[in-house]
Amino acid sequence: MTTVGQQPDRTSVATAEHTTVPGQRPPGQLRRVTGTITRRVRPFDAAVAALFLLAAHLLYVNLWSDLAHGYLTDSGGDQNQAEWFMAIAAENIAHLHNPFFTTVQGFPDGVNLMANTVMLGLTVPLTPITLAFGPTVTYALVLTWGLAGTGIAWYWVLGRWAVRGRPAAAVGAALAAFAPPMISHGNAHPNFTALFMIPLIVDRALCLCRGDRVVRDAVLLGLFTAYQIFIGEEVLLIAAVGMLLFAAAYALADPGRAREAARPLRKGLPIALAMVLPLVAGPLYVQFLGPGSYTDVPHGYGVVVNSPLSFLQFAGRSLAGNEAIADRFAVNRLEQNAFYGWPLAGLALVIAVRLWHRALVKALVCTAIGGAVLSMGPRIQIPGTHIVLPGPWRLILDLPLFGSVIESRFGMVCAPVLGVLVALAVDRIAASSEPRLKAAGLVAVAAALLPIVPTPYPVNVRPAVPDFIADGTWRRYVDEGQTVVPVPLAHSYTTESQHWQSATRMAFTMPGGYFMAPNGPAHVGNYNPEPRPTYRLLGTVYTSGKVPEIGPRQRAEAEADLSYWKAGVVVLAPGFNAPPLYQTLRQLLGRDGTLIGGAWVWDVNDGTSATRRPGA
Question: Helix, strand, or coil here: 135?
Fold first, then answer.
């Protein structure tokens, strides 16, 4: 690699359009840019990194300002879930428990942590922070530094492979990391914001295609891939599909370069696979075949998909966004997986037309179209008509792993593609010798990007943990091996009891929960454990606010369920629909609850707990 200030290779992506030297490959081939961002970090590089960190912290300023009580408004139950995963990972490491499985939640069947988004690649290294400061701090760190780290990684990769100018790389990286879909997932999905390994995997794959140091690059590619598996497998799958789309399109655009890359790939990919398998084989066996494993996760045929119009809309939490409009195009605010806005779509079209002669641009455009079309699901409704076209998603729906992916998330493939296209445009504009043309170009780029600039995440006040739980009073009611039964039991629509566990460092065990688990004889994946009758009954009361008719059957089922759960105490805290829940429990258990420490308590042991016997 040359040092900063040397003349870039004329066959690079950044310079190929300017000069064609006899004997060289035609303009547009993929070559690493030399003389840009090297091992030597310059002040501008540090400034870009600091700017990304500042931007990420400004997005989460409301959360950081009150970590003790703040809860991201649009996160639903997912913030409590994510913090629970961080807390259980830390406790498992601290007490040398199995990091892949636990019965602390979902008792007695337990939780297959490898089959959930526990993010061991981050939660394990951050265990000291979680134990010292609590999971909310770790959660805020992963979200904030994950976004910033992704931007920094894309900045480095774009500077190596796509553009000559640092400002162009910074603009493209900012779009790739802070695009609307990433901001949407930033409400509560840290596995979809901490994407910093994806650019590094892309970089190693490109290095492997060059064939200079095949063994080294293959080993690094394998190690990076294995680490990404422990951060987020779904992200890796989506990125792999995007890379395959890019590779296929580039091979068609530049067959000669594809033939050159095939030789080192044939040698290097087996080496990379040999690095991955020993590291992930055991954990993946637990995930797919161990206790608590499941098959596909059905989200409904063609339900969670992107409309073609959603790519032209603005996200609800962007400068030009309208929440009411955005909500019509997404299943919830965590899954706004398109929403790039019509100005950016228009700019991308102009860039594609202007630079279409370049193989790189052709491959990028095909990749974006492929990801967007996949995200529209198996049936694509043409807006404004009754025409429904078959989508390519139906061709891969039944393949392993794809049945568990939310289709609309493939729209995220467009984010780095648009980042590269915009970086190429800014780099070309900056090289212009015409001041008016340069000014007009930069204004056009700014006009396309400003509407999708994200706004800070709003925060609500999280309900406090009742004193009965927080001060440990519950211990007087629970014998060894027994559980606390919080009402409502944790579910995808109510997760406060997960926060109770996280806040008390997993001090007690409970049934129910919000996690991926097998349901039914086919072990189909669901967002909650197999519902027992009382679990289902109390969930219905929570969502409807109506007290059902309680008879001998319901009481017998409640008795059987409490025995199955090895319940020591039932706890109902004030909150949403607490009065009907109280009346239901009163009838199920045949007596009134006792108000202790800010919660209604039913002693299932009937005063026989060993911890309350004389001398205990």
Answer: helix
Q: What are phi and psi of 111, to 5 degrees?
A: -125, 125
Cβ atoms of residues 197 and 154 within 8 Å: no
How far apart are the C-alpha atoms of 514 and 474, rounded to whole Å?
22
Q: Pull the structure tokens for residue 497.
A: 């009891």
Classify residue 243 by burial, with Cβ atoms within 10 Å: 0-12, 13-18, 19+. middle
Residue type, 579: P
Contact indicator for 535, 512 with CB cutoff of 8 Å:
yes
Q: Read off the tokens for 615.
A: 């001398």
DSSP state of 99: T
Average pLDDT of the residues of the chain: 92
* Position 23 pLDDT exceeds 50: no
Cis omega (within 30 of 0) for bond into 488 = yes
Helices marked H in 60-108? 61-64, 78-94
Q: What is the pLDDT of residues 321-359, one digit of tens each?
A: 999 999 999 999 999 999 999 999 999 999 999 999 999
Q: Are 528 and 113 in contact (CB under 8 A)?
A: no
Q: What is the DSSP letter of 505?
A: T
CB atoms within 10 A of CB 456: 13
Write the CA distances from 159 to 8, 10, 13, 89, integer angstroms.
Answer: 12, 15, 11, 36
Look up residue 459 and give its two tokens: 């925060």
Give the integer Cα–Cα distance in Å for 353 and 82: 43
Q: Are 528 and 513 in contact (CB under 8 A)?
A: yes
- What value, to the nearest 5°, has the Cα angle with vertex 125 and ends 504 and 490? 35
Closest to 415 (Cα-Cα) out of 117, 186, 145, 167: 186
Q: Is the pLDDT of residue 614 over 70?
A: no
DSSP secondary structure string for all residues of 518-578: EETTTTEEESSPPPPHHHHHHHHHHHH--PPP--HHHHHHHHHHHHHTTEEEEEE-S-TTH
Percent of the chain past pLDDT 70, that is, above it, reads 92
Q: What is the mean pLDDT of residues 461-474?
A: 97
Q: Which residues contact 423 (CB under 8 A, 6 or more apart)?
A: 158, 162, 163, 168, 169, 171, 172, 173
Output the six-digit token pair for 32: 């690493």
| DSSP letter assigned to residue 28 | T
Q: Mean per-residue pLDDT for 283-300?
A: 92
Tens of pLDDT along 517-574? 999 999 999 999 999 999 999 999 999 999 999 999 999 999 999 999 999 999 999 9
The DSSP bridge partners found for residue 603 are 569
| SS3 of residue 479 by DSSP | coil
